[in-house]
Amino acid sequence: MCPLTFKGEVYLSTGLMILGAVFAGALLEGVALHFLLPMLQETGAVRQNYQGSDIPVSAGISFPLVAIGVFALYVPLAYFKSSYYPFLLGITALCFLGFIDDMLGQRDALGFKGHFGALFKGKLTTGGLKALGGGMIAFFLALLQPTGWVDLLVNTMLMALFTNMLNLLDLRPGRAIKGYLFFLIAIIALAGARVDWLIIAPLLGAVICYFGIDLKARAMMGDAGSNVLGLALGYISVISLTLPYRTGILLFLIILHIYTEKYSLTRTIEKYPWLRAVDNLGRGQSDG
Length: 288
Description:
Layout: H1 4-42, E1 46-48, E2 54-56, H2 62-74, H3 84-104, H4 111-120, H5 126-143, H6 149-169, H7 175-191, H8 197-215, H9 222-240, H10 243-262, H11 265-271, H12 273-280
Antiparallel strand pairs: 1-2
Helix pairs in contact: 1-2, 1-8, 2-3, 2-8, 3-5, 3-9, 4-5, 5-6, 6-7, 6-9, 6-10, 7-9
């Protein structure tokens, strides 16, 4: 058994590593955005936001790049785990699918019903490609977990629906990131000591840095970014939470998706003062 003092030193070292990973994620995100946003603007990767302003889209392609950069620092410091490989693969692949939808999507079919309805008619939309690809990625990541068939089904759906939920939220400045932070805090609270902070820290740092830009409507993360954050929430849930907690969250996500197929999430938020206050928190008047 290791001495207590040695355990304390390891704990402190791990704690410093987590803080360092958050800081490194924020720093790398700042550098990435400094070069990325002008590039998106100059190459025409812009889209009108809900106010009619043309702003850069797909700024979220920085998220997997930053995550890979920070995880690379884990390797020489002996903090990298083999279980991080599928996570990095998943967020990178889903970012790519989201980028395709951001750049080529026509928005003529919306929601699961619209995309799969088009697919059943023999037409593949970019949203349908993203949904199919996202489902395959979620299934692959779920297969890598040492679980049975029930867990496989729950984990696949949990990651897939978390991914799409962040897309649903990303309709107003800062809304998707607020949703990401809310669910991340909830997952951490439910998981307790099972949380792997080193897998959370890089993206958390990147999100903290990007948050102000999103709130001020200077850029949109796009599906390229919301896909990454959604899958991250799903994956952290899968590796951190027990089956009852995962099932409960999955039921909530299913109900939310059924609701949003019929009703506008934005109108619902506007209907309730406390939701509207949280949604508007941090925005300037010109930013909605």
